[in-house]
Design a protein that fits this description.
single chain; mainly beta; four-stranded antiparallel β-sheet; 53% strand; globular
């Protein structure tokens, strides 16, 4: 059974940084793309970033491009999201997800971790 466990969320002031981690288990981590999505209160879930299985291709939403960086460590079965220059509008529950490829269907979701940015 595939499990995704996020960590690293919390409360941070605007302009600050956080690094989210997602530890995966249950299947060959390096074979699959890994992604981060978020859902703010009263809003739909939106894709934030994705990294391909080969670690060659990354994608970012326009709202986070230039501020967030996704990376993966296949030896540790972990994907990261480094978030810099945080804004109040980044406040959301952040979810880790995995699928065969970026821009494809999601197979599994994590339980989410709360990120709150105070202004």
């Amino acid at each position: 059974q595939v499990q995704l466990v996020e960590s690293g969320g919390g409360l941070v002031q605007a302009g600050g940084s956080l690094r989210l981690s997602c530890a995966a288990s249950g299947r060959t981590f390096s074979t699959y793309a890994m992604a981060w999505s978020r859902q703010a209160p009263g809003k739909e879930r939106e894709g934030v970033s994705c990294i391909s299985s080969s670690d060659i291709t990354t994608y970012y939403s326009d709202s986070v491009k230039g501020r967030f960086t996704i990376s993966r460590d296949n030896a540790k079965n972990t994907v990261y999201l480094q978030m810099n220059s945080l804004k109040s509008e980044d406040t959301a529950v952040y979810y880790c997800a995995t699928g065969w490829r970026c821009n494809g269907p999601i197979d599994y979701w994590g339980q989410g971790t709360q990120v709150t940015v105070s202004s």
